[in-house]
Amino acid sequence: MRILISGAGPAGLALANCLLDAGMAPVIVEKAPALRTAGYAVGLHLGGWEVAERLGLIDALKARAISIQQADYRDARGRKLFSYNYRHLSAACGERMLMILRDALQEVLVERLAGRVPIRYGTTITALADKGEAVEVGFSDGSSEHFDLVVAADGYRSGVRELQFGPHSEFLKPLGYRSAAWRLPSSQAMDCDYAAFMDIDLQAGLYQVGDGTVSTLFCWRDEEISRVPAEERTARIASRFSHWPALVSDTFRNGVDWSDGFFDTICQVEVPQWSRGRVVLIGDAAHCMTFLSGQGTSTAVVGAYVLAAELASRPPAEALAAYEARLRPVATRLQKQSEKIGGHYVPRSRFGLAVQSWVIPALMRPPLVRLMARKMEASSLSIA
């Protein structure tokens, strides 16, 4: 079976690896001119960890993982609110958990595909015509080809989904926040692995990557959902965070290269059906649950494994239905959790800040952290 995957992110690259192992012939197209380097750290755990084990990638991922242990939370004036250690959660998950930069995860997945799966960079899908037994695909370079299946793994603003299923407005559910992330050389010493600053409706975080750089993650309440031009983004952030401690405000004082950064509305994706004919959605294109859930990447990787396994054992129509039946309940549960987490991640009041200062460290220490781990495991999908 010849399968076209749109998007060389974690979901698309994981799917290509799983399809290859199942004896199928994937082809990847990616809009960017090269493998993307932007993005913040993502977590890989439980089901996602198990998929990585089956692909033989755990050692390579561990070698590139970020060591985030001590996390300190402070207020907008730099006064310490609370702290905790991520090692407690990792231990409660049986050490089947790691943090890794998104681009490092992609590099590991691409290395396993080298010489076996073509990746056409600088290429997008511009037209789809489902012929019943195959899909005729038009590309941005003017060429066209036929594939047995087309997979949209091109993010929550999926171009393939827009072509086959309808406009973004039908499927994007804004949660009332914006976020931004970028990487920069480390100019100030940090006395912890992760430093977060919280205030009403605002949060900013910095974490050491281990290569002499620091990655940022900003989040704030914003009901506006329109796209913000790159030349206006830094000013938007400065208007909210410029008076914060230097560790935060220095990150954007000299501007940000947004060609290598992220800035967008935080939206979930809700699509009534993940496949239409011979076109199917995976990852954020199907069920974006936002970074607030902490499980988006693992769920996308598990979804890739499940889709490949179903395609290897059933006719396409049955396989797509079985894939959705297995994964949708998990994605729906995690989306609901993500909506609740947003209100805690960016508190709305001084009282909310005070509550978080007590609740979060309590949850991240034994014995409550073991309950959290069991809840995560219960909400994950077994790939057995």
Treating each run of at least 4 consecutive H or I residues as one helix, how many helices? 13
Q: Write the CATH architecture name of the largest domain.
A: 3-Layer(bba) Sandwich
Question: Average pLDDT value?
Answer: 89
Total E-strand runs: 19
Q: Give the overall shape.
A: globular
**Ranges with pLDDT <50 over ≥5 residues?**
none
Number of spatially distinct domains = 2
Strand coverage percent: 25-35%
Alpha-carbon Rg, integer? 21 Å
At the first level of CATH, what is the class of the largest domain?
Answer: Alpha Beta
Portion in helices = 25-40%
If you consult CATH, what is the topology of the largest domain? FAD/NAD(P)-binding domain
- Major pleated sheet: 8 strands, mixed
CATH superfamily of the largest domain: FAD/NAD(P)-binding domain
Q: How far apart lie the N and C ends?
A: 23 Å
Structural class: alpha/beta
Q: What's the short version?
A:
With 384 residues, the protein is an alpha/beta fold. It has helices at residues 10-21, 47-54, 58-64, 86-92, 102-113, 159-164, 230-241, 246-249, 284-287, 296-313, 316-345, 350-363, 368-379; strands spanning 2-6, 25-30, 41-45, 70-75, 80-85, 97-101, 119-121, 125-130, 135-139, 144-147, 149-152, 172-181, 183-185, 194-199, 202-208, 213-221, 262-269, 275-276, 279-281.
